[in-house]
Amino acid sequence: MRPDDQALRLPLPTDSPLEPPAEWERLRRQCPVATVELPSGDRAAFLTRYDHVKALLTDARFTRPKAGDGAARIAPEGVGGPAADGDGALTLPDRGEPHQRWRRQVGKYFTAKRMTALRPGMVRTAEHLVDEMIRRGRPGDLKAGLGFPLPVYVICDILGVPAEDRDRFSHWSDAFLNVTRFSGEHTRAAHDEFVAYMSAHIEAIRARPGDDLLGMLVKERETDGEGLSDQELIATGMGLLVAGHETTANMIGKMVSLLLADRGRWEGLLADPSLVRTAVEESLRFDANLGFGMRRYLTEDVEIDGELLPSGTTVVCSMPAANRDERAFADADRMDLTRSPNPHLTFGAGPHSCLGQALARTELQVALEVLLRKLPTLRLAVPAEELPRVQGLLVGGLSAVPVTW
Question: What GO annotations for molecular function exist for this entry (predicted)?
Answer without folding.
Answer: heme binding; iron ion binding; monooxygenase activity; oxidoreductase activity, acting on paired donors, with incorporation or reduction of molecular oxygen
